[in-house]
Prior knowledge:
This protein is mostly helical. The chain is built from 21 helices and 5 strands. The strands form 2 sheets. The chain has a 3-stranded antiparallel sheet with strand order 3-5-4. It has a two-stranded parallel ribbon with strand order 1-2. The longest helix has 23 residues, at 313-335.
Amino acid sequence: MRDIATDPDARAAGVEQTPKSVIQWLSRIGHDWFIVFDNATSDSGGLAAYLPQGDRGNILFTSQNLRLARHVPREARIELDDMEEEDAISLLLKSSSMDEHSTEWREAARPIVKELCCLPLALDQAGAAIAAGLCSIDDYLTRYSQHRRELLADPTFKGASNYGRAVYGTWDLSFRAIHVMGTEAAESAIFILQTFAFFHHENIAEEIIKRAAEAGSTEPAIGDDGNGSNVCLPPQLVQLDQRGCWDPLFFREGIRMLLSYSLIKKVAVTGIYSFHPLVHCWSRDRMSHEGRQISSSLASTLLASSITFQFMTADFGFRGALIPHIRALGNWTTELGIEMPYQDKQYTNFSFAYNEAGYWKEAGQLRDQVVQKRKQMLGEEHPDTLASMASLAVTYCNQGRWKEAEELEVQVMQMCKRILEEEHPSTLTSMANLATIYRNQGRWKEAEELDVQVMQMRKRILGEEHPDTLTSMGNLAATYWNQG
Length: 484
């Protein structure tokens, strides 16, 4: 502003070399003017003091701070998204000092552009590394897979833009700005950033937090974090109101802060968020091994606690949407060498979600571990052990592994009869499940015998109109039908 005061017209008008004098002059002059506020970071008050009045001028803000949009008419906002792929290829080749019109080089650049998700600063920096001889365009991806953090954090490769910061350095700056605030909103933002780093980068629903909080079982994240202490979720995050409903204020304050630094994005559906894939990588890469251990455990706790055994359409859809996050959690912990301690609830709930969504292999692997752990910790005849064996038998059925399913279900039925007695609901369920296995093997007589027993006992114990009785009648009818 003081520099503008040296303009000949400004000096002729008696403008002093102060921002206030310049702003007053711009507000009253009769010809057009144009001001750029480049990389503006202030939210409102500080910046508003520097905006001239009137309607002759034009002002352009460039900023990562979405809250500045409040000062700009909706029709005047332009959100810059990822580059188009062909433009991104041209940028990479230009930064690499290579012929951007060469078909051969453009095809060689394409996989790099896709891996870096068309992020301009990352492409510019990759080009600088190639131009400096650190790697060639043909082996960049190999070097990147081995040294991603070093390549994206190295400030010496500034690229053609002279921006002055590395890709990771830019986000580190935002993280430090949030961290030094020390507010509850900043605490929430850091927790969300580090925990969601172990989810899939797309379609992260706040419904996960809501369901976990209202399930009321989110106290320990893991049984033991390796140091003999429990890792817990921030109590503000899972706070309930007087009606027992989740209070989202703490979570949404953190989201608002991440949005203001462009570290997370809203999607079209309310309450759904996503990360740029490279931001997602950075959020894991910047953590220590201990930090990754804690954050992955918290992520696992949230996901497992959000899975409730309800069978409405909305619940089925919600559990299905969790599968990419459960898979991503497993992938990241494996890739980073994180050993996840066995947690019965998490293994059980994840296997339930996998089984329901038709991922039989993953469900079977988890359920087999649950069976082995419960046998070891609770004993073979504990009701929870029998329940896990029955669940594994169901997964074997879904995989068409009838012989293994039969052997396991026979064990469950015999132990239930001995431990819980013949008329116990769990015993009747195991008999019904074994009948289903016989039916799928075409062993109609054996299926019929079990179906009749189950139906008669349920009629006597539960009554003719109980849902379980009606189910057993339906099963028997199916057996008769298959026998013609």
